Amino acid sequence: MRPALLALLPLLALSQELPEDGPDTPPFTDEAVEPAPTVSPEGCALDRTWPTEAWPERAPGPDKADAVAALEAYAFPERTPEQEAERLGVRTDGVIVIQGGEILYERYGDGYTAEMPHLNWSVSKTWVSALVALAVAEGRMSVEDSICDHITATNPENCVIRVQDLLEFASGLEWHETYEGDPPTTSSVIAMLIGEGYPDMAAFISGQPRRAPPGTVWQYSSGDTTLLANVVQAVMEPEHGRDFPWTLLFDRLGMTSVVFERDNAGTFVGSSYLHATPRDMARFGYLWLNDGCWEGERLFPEGWVLDSTRVSDAIRARALDRGPRDVQGRQLWLNQPVPELGDETRPWPDMPSDTYAAMGHWKQAIVMVPSRDAVIIRTGDDRDGSFSWNTFLSLSLALTDEIPMGGLGYRPAVGEPGVMEASEAMKFDVGLLGLGTAYGAKLGCTCAYVIGQTHDYCRAYIKASPDIVKAKFDDEAHAVTTRAMGFKTATARWVNERDGCLLDP
């Protein structure tokens, strides 16, 4: 129908002579009625289930009974007393499987419930990417911006780093991302979180020397994401206030559990310290699954999800400290091989190629599978490497049904063979006892006063090797003080329901 005729329809409706008791039939024929739109002008689906108020639930059919049993046997196995004492084996805290906006499966373990927020660890990185997406959508920043368009770098030479470089782990900064099992005095991320960097993490990160021009080398870095959090805060807080992640994102999606901890300078610890219940994590995954749209409104710029799920040019060219088949886009892990680096199979070979995920330490994840219209959530406390993502995800996906829907798919690009290298260890001026007490105080406070676990659970949660750190919980002050070797101490305190816990300076 021509636009001119459509404009006359309201007038024609008013001119209809209707019976006193109202019309028996609609005033227009089928030819005059436009079908209800299924897509908004912004390109967002309108005919979707939106779990803003609550998640709908739908039990898997009887034909899925064996699949449910197989998932439960793998994700929630019986553990021996020896495994329990040393925190060994598969240790799942929560699982949710969603398809079509409905929860098919949900279970919790080890004292966790649906109401308890869980530490996301590096899943937090993808939340920071979403905050950047909001800032770009508002026109307040561009991925091509220099970081120094918005913040002051400790080392002015680092002003050549762009927002996009941070999104793609391609800042070129010298960084050494190691955790348990490696010398803590050579770990950049430990120095940032609980060592010399924690009073002002952005200043610490932006003061690091560079090993390569930005955009030319991929290296996984908690520093890149935490610096990115500082940049987006500098952009958004003057207009929207200190709590802009809640007002612009969390509240709009119906999330009520999110805690996002900061350093002593007020920067969100974007690499590691966001907490949320699995159901709120699932809302975040559902936002990504729906192309950054929520209830018909576009929150992310159009194309943001697509760009974020393409293998970055930096990792194709040169990768430092790359784990086996690690593949990244923008703060997301992808199920796509990188032929330039010699990959022959996908990271999770039993999952569709369009699968992508936010993943974190000790096996946390928000996993999106567009070709199944599915989101899979897993929280855990896995320390020994016995857990397999490919096994868990394929067992979870077996609860869903095949649907006639296309995914993002793998978009191959022609490029020169890439290079994989290992970075040289760095050295930080930090005492081991200081690291141990700071680690115990911070995680102990988070465990007890953000998550809500028992003191006994939290003492086991913060246990490290060697086991020399002792924790004292002060429930009245919501504080944890740790002591090592009888003299080295650290204290972390709960600040409020949004900021969580903070180490004392």
Structure explained in plain terms:
The chain has 15 helices and 18 strands. With 505 residues, it is an alpha+beta fold. It has 3 domains: 30 residues, no CATH class; 360 residues, DD-peptidase/beta-lactamase superfamily (Beta-lactamase, 3-Layer(aba) Sandwich); 72 residues, no CATH class. The strands form 5 sheets. The protein has a 6-stranded antiparallel beta sheet with strand order 2-1-13-12-11-10, sandwiched between helices. α2 packs antiparallel against α13, α4 packs across α8 and α14 packs antiparallel against α15. The longest helix is centred in the C-terminal third of the chain and has 20 residues.
- Oligomeric state as shown: single chain
What portion of residues is helical? 25-40%
Distance between the termini: 69 Å
CATH architecture of the largest domain: 3-Layer(aba) Sandwich
**Average of pLDDT:** 89
- Summed up, the domain count is 3
Give the number of DSSP strands: 18
Write the CATH homologous superfamily of the largest domain.
Answer: DD-peptidase/beta-lactamase superfamily
How is the largest sheet built, in terms of strand order?
A: 2-1-13-12-11-10
The structural class is alpha+beta
Largest β sheet strand count, sense and barrel closure: 6 strands, antiparallel
Share in β-strands:
15-25%
Shape, please?
Answer: globular
**CATH classification, class level of the largest domain:** Alpha Beta
Low-confidence stretches: 1-30, 405-416
Count of DSSP helices? 15
Rg, Cα atoms, Å: 25 Å
Question: Which fold name is given in CATH as the topology of the largest domain?
Answer: Beta-lactamase
